[in-house]
Amino acid sequence: MTGPSLAELAQRARAVASRPGRQLLGITGPPGAGKSRLADRLAEAVTGSMVIGMDGFHIGHAELERIGRAERKGAPDTFDRAGFVALLRRLRAETATVYIPVFDRSIEDSIAAARAVPPEAQLLIIEGNYLLHWPEVRPLLAEVWYLDPPREQRLAGLAARHHAFGKPAQLARDWARGPDERNAELVAADREAAELVLGWGDW
Fold it and tell me: I want to staple 55 with a disulfide (CB 3.0 to 4.6 A). Which of 48, 97, 103, 115 is the partner?
């Protein structure tokens, strides 16, 4: 299944941005679906937009180890869900600069207040796994697009990413097909709630 072109998606994103007030556009899908890549490309194509990743709300790795969840990192209960929702509400309501956390894969941890969202950013592209899974998030987003690439290509790319960031090759494959795939099943259950379902596009 192929999807619309980047130009077509950018046109749709501009239509969302043209609505009154600041708009939040969600990009979701299972781990390794290409959410960050599409979000970044859209932000390059749409003036006045920027990307905000849900990954900035990973609970800190030391805290995950303390509460016994480090081996499940990426599952819904390994995020600061309430903090993420509070940020989305702030972004919709506030006109001043808002600082956001960013996840740094090189250290596998989040850095607080690492980026600024300026008042002139009128389209915020929110990317993350659980935008449809957490019911309190959906009303805060103008639209949600679900990325649904072929499973084996997604898993191969995900394992390669884990390996590139330090996991041994076999562990990277096991993680992609183990914890990541269990999370993917949760995400897929809400697929039909998205306004747009995208296959493997040219972005």
Answer: 103
